[in-house]
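DEPOSITED CHAIN:
***
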Amino acid sequence: MFHSLLIGMAGGMRALSPLAAVSIAANRGALPADNGAPPFLGHPLVVAGTVALAAGELLGDKLPSSPDRIIAPGLAARAITGAITGMALAPREQRYTGALLGAAGALAAAYLTFNARMAAMRDHGQTTTGVVEDAVMLGATAWVVADASHASTRALEDTSPRRLPPPPRALGAP
């Protein structure tokens, strides 16, 4: 469930990049086993659309005319994408809790990162701070999605039956 919260927090910085990363992972079959992802998430058209929208968001964020992330439409987008990505990284039976954690993480991080970026922009400008924020968000997103998949694989290995070693052979036995 921790991954659901973390992916939501990444979505607080950029609404669409974590959704694109989770969509790509769904398409590749790299989401955690028995996840709560909506069935459409890995469809090739959804992958193409989320990647295109995420790229547009990354570019548009550097423009002086881009709106603040804490206005109502920006917060709504972050809550929705945080819920979808949080659900996708949660076990199926806990998908609604994962959705709640993803949305809450996105909303909290939207305010935290907005205030941090505004403070940094006074010294470093919009483009530089945006590029740094993109790098942090993309790195965090990639790590969270990969770790969620690996954690699921490790959990499955831990619950699989273990094979016992063969019994020792007696001396002189063929």
